Each structure stands twice: as structure tokens, then as C-alpha cells.
Amino acid sequence: MLDTGKISLQKEIMVIGKGLMDAFLTNEDIEDFLQQAFTKWDMTGQKVLVIVPDSTRILPMPLFFRLIHEGLAGKAKSIDYLISSGTYAPMSSEDINKHFGITPRQLAEGIYRDVNIFTHQWNLPENYATLGTISEDETDSLTSGMLKAELPVRLNRKVLNYDMIIVLSPVSPHELAGFSGGNKYFFSGTGSPEVMNYISWLGALHMRRDILGVRDTSVRRIIDRAASFIPASKLYICPVVREYGVSGLFIGEHDEAWTKAVELSLRVHIVYSDKRYSKVIAVLPKSYPDLWVGVKGLQKVEQIVKDDGELIIYAPHVRGLSFAHGMLMEKIGYHVRDFFLKKWDYYKGYPLMVLAHSTLLKPDGTYQEGKEHPRINATLATGIHPLVCKKINLNYYNPLEINPRNPIGEQNEDMLVVRNAGEILYRFRDN
């Protein structure tokens, strides 16, 4: 058991909470930690905005919503919520109520009538406010020369209307930032396209093994610097969630709470393998609605695929490339990073977040003499048409020919099936 609660108490309760390696927190544990936090960080009379994940993230959101409301109602002047959705598909009113656990009876009784729940709409320029600028020299320093460019810090202007911002952000390994959570819920979760483009492309410039599941990255340094421009007070609630429960919860200032959550995530979200496999089948959860989100399934397991091996994304429910960027993705396709670097004059006008996403299904490959050499072969066994797969430079496999309970005939020691792919990071032990 990893218990950081006692350690943190020695620092005037800078971090409230604890983490468990071999068990899960109870609902009572979570309630107790939140009550302690709302006593220490008194929000009486303040306008509070709670930034939360959308339904693509694993989190007992109804529990946290209820406990936060109970902890602040009658004290805070107002309690509103902003769904940090980045460029993901917006949630319907029905989906939002389900996500927050708001029942028809509660709606009829008006229990949450004073609570506003907003969805971040990334494509509306009027939604953004500029807080400042990170200079070329500073981005050059923060990224160790990897991406030198002036960066306007722009995010959803709703953030500026509150005294206290609570960031409820699950922490786990992330393919472009190292780890999710914390300030990433501002940038890129509620950030402008300019910020998302910069951060995404910076992440894509790294080799995946050098950034995925790594705490200190150039992307994280940019994200944290951008968040320093936000004038409101901030409190971070950082759960570490696994499929069957909450392994840990850390509440406090960003550096302390997020770092404690990362330390636990390193222990519970990463599985080390002593071997690589010629074929890996990544079975995506239903919460990944399109390939834009579904790339997490490939990214989290590709390190244990042999060179020139095959990674099959099995997701019959996935029928589109991206809610926001599907047409561009169909035009550009999926390529190794060096393909874009060597054709930069042509591709530099495209949104960098789209180019970054393109590289995620062709990780760690090369482009030489006009030909791409991806380290692994990505195959889609999804609802995406085979002609589209060919057009976007990916292989196709009929999902009807795969039985996820007994995939592609008899299993053998050179094939691995990963269920709920995208939640756990698999690493080859020699990495």
C-alpha cells in the first residue's frame, strides 16, 4: 500500500488524500478527503467553477459531482461546471445528465437548478480570451530548442468569471503530454486552437517512448507555464482511477497534488512485459467514439509489438475518424512523423493538432527515399470502410471475422489480446 496522506500532513496538509496499490478507496474515503479539502480551502461567498472531464475518461463522475455539490452548497456564492472536452464531440443534454448522475426526478424537483453545466466549444473564436504571451525565447528554453515559437495564451473566457477554479482531473499516462490531468484540463482541454496546435505538435515531435508515461516533459512545462497566467485561485482534485475503482485521490495545489497522482499512476497504470509480440489486438472500450480518441488504444500497447509486427485496433462501434477533423484526416491520412518534417513546406499550413494526431498510428517510424517505414503495422478492425482505410494509409481487417473472446483462431504465445485498451500502458521491460 502506498499511503501518502500521512507524509503530506507534515507539510501543513499541502496535499489531502492517499493512494493504494492493491485496493481501492471507498466512497466514504473520498467524501472524507473532499470535506477536509473544503474546510482547508474555504470558498464561502466565492463564485466557483469546476472543470471536469467528458465521458471518454474513466471516473465515478456522479459520486464526485454529488460530493462537491454537498460540500460547497450553501457556502459558495455559485457552483458551475465546465466540461473540458478539447475538440471531442460535444455531449448532448441527456448524455450530460447521465455523466453527472442527474436523475429525471432530480431535474423535476429542481435540486440542481442553480448549477450551470457548460461544454467547451473549441471552434467558436468568441469563446476565448487572451491572457498573455509566452515569448519565442521562453518556448525555446522550455522545450530545449524543440519548438521555438511565440505562443499566445488563450483559453475559454468563462474561466475568468470565477474566484476559484476547481480542476477535477483523473491522472494517467498520456500519449502527447506524458501524463494527463492537472493543468492539461486548461490547455488543451479548454484552450484555443492555437494553444492546442502548439502543444499537440510539440508532443508529436517526441518519440512516443520518450514522452508517454514520463512526468517531466517539454509539453508539460509549456502547459504549466500557460496555466500560470490564469488569475483565479485554483484547487486540484486528482483521482487515479482503474477499471474497477479509485486507487488514489490527491487534493491540493497543482505541483503537489498532480505529482502525487503521477507517482501512483506510475505504479498502477503501467504493466511491464518481458517480451514483444508479433500480433497484438487492442480491444477498444465503447467510451472511445471515434478514431481520434481510439488512438489511445494503439499508443498504450505499441511498445510491446515486435518490429514489423501488427497491431489490430478492434472496435466495431467506431465508424468515423474524428468528430471535428474527420474530413482533414481523410485527406491527410496517417503517416510517420518524418514524413511531415521532410514535406514541411506542403503540410505546414494544416492544423498542427491534425498533423500530430496523424503520427499517433504510425509511431516511431522513418521516411527515406520517398517511402515510409513505420516500426509497426497498424490495422483497423472497425466500422470504418475498407476503402477509407486504404485512403488514409492504414490496413483493414473485417471486424466480423474477429471473435474478441477467441480472436483469429487459437491464441498462441506470439499474440496478445488487450481488453479495454487505452487505459493501461504496456512497456517492454528493456525500455
- Give the helix/strand class: alpha/beta
Largest sheet composition: 7 strands, mixed
Question: How many beta-strand segments?
Answer: 20
Strand order of the largest sheet: 1-11-10-7-2-3-4
Helix percentage: 25-40%
C-alpha geometry: globular
Count up the helices. 16
Mean pLDDT: 92
The span between the termini is 26 Å
Low-pLDDT residue spans: 1-11
The share of residues in extended strands comes to 15-25%
Radius of gyration using CA atoms only: 22 Å
Short summary:
The protein is α/β, with parallel strands linked by helices and 431 residues long.
Write the layout of secondary structure elements.
Blueprint: H1 5-9, E1 15-19, H2 27-40, E2 47-52, H3 61-72, E3 78-83, H4 93-100, H5 104-109, E4 117-119, E5 128-134, H6 136-142, E6 151-156, E7 164-168, E8 173-174, E9 178-179, H7 193-205, H8 208-211, H9 218-227, E10 233-242, E11 245-252, H10 254-268, E12 270-273, E13 277-283, H11 291-299, E14 305-315, H12 326-332, H13 337-341, H14 344-347, H15 352-359, E15 366-368, E16 371-373, E17 377-382, H16 386-391, E18 395-396, E19 415-419, E20 425-428
Parallel strand pairs: 2-3, 2-7, 3-4, 7-10, 12-20, 13-14, 13-19, 14-17, 17-18
Antiparallel strand pairs: 1-11, 5-6, 8-9, 10-11, 15-16
What does this entry look like structurally?
This protein is an alpha/beta fold and 431 residues long. The protein has helices spanning 5-9, 27-40, 61-72, 93-100, 104-109, 136-142, 193-205, 208-211, 218-227, 254-268, 291-299, 326-332, 337-341, 344-347, 352-359, 386-391; strands spanning 15-19, 47-52, 78-83, 117-119, 128-134, 151-156, 164-168, 173-174, 178-179, 233-242, 245-252, 270-273, 277-283, 305-315, 366-368, 371-373, 377-382, 395-396, 415-419, 425-428. The strands form six sheets. It has a seven-stranded mixed sheet, sandwiched between helices. It has a five-stranded parallel sheet with strand order 18-17-14-13-19. Strands 5-6 form a two-stranded antiparallel sheet. Helix 7 (193-205) runs antiparallel to helix 9. The longest helix has 15 residues, at 254-268. It is globular and about 65 Å long. The two termini are 26 Å apart. The model is unreliable at 1-11 (pLDDT under 50).
